[in-house]
Design a protein that fits this description.
Blueprint (H helix, E strand, L loop, with lengths): L1 E3 L4 E2 L15 E11 L5 E11 L5 E12 L5
Antiparallel strand pairs: 1-2, 1-3, 3-4, 4-5
Length: 74
Amino acid sequence: EIIYNNSEEVPVMMRDEAEPKHSHTTVSVTINEHKKFSDGSCKTTMYDGLECTGCGKIWIGDKIGETTLVKCPH
């Protein structure tokens, strides 16, 4: 999911199609990567990121945090 500076949360839909040629206009976002494990636990890793407001392309930057839970509430 992507978390915008105004705290709006949006699921990430990764796309492999070619983007139209344009100059990217980006906004800063936080990207959460959630992994669920077979023992019922989970890990969420948070990254700084950028998203193009025109085409939706996402660039993942530096890792900024990580949370591990023994029982996944998601």
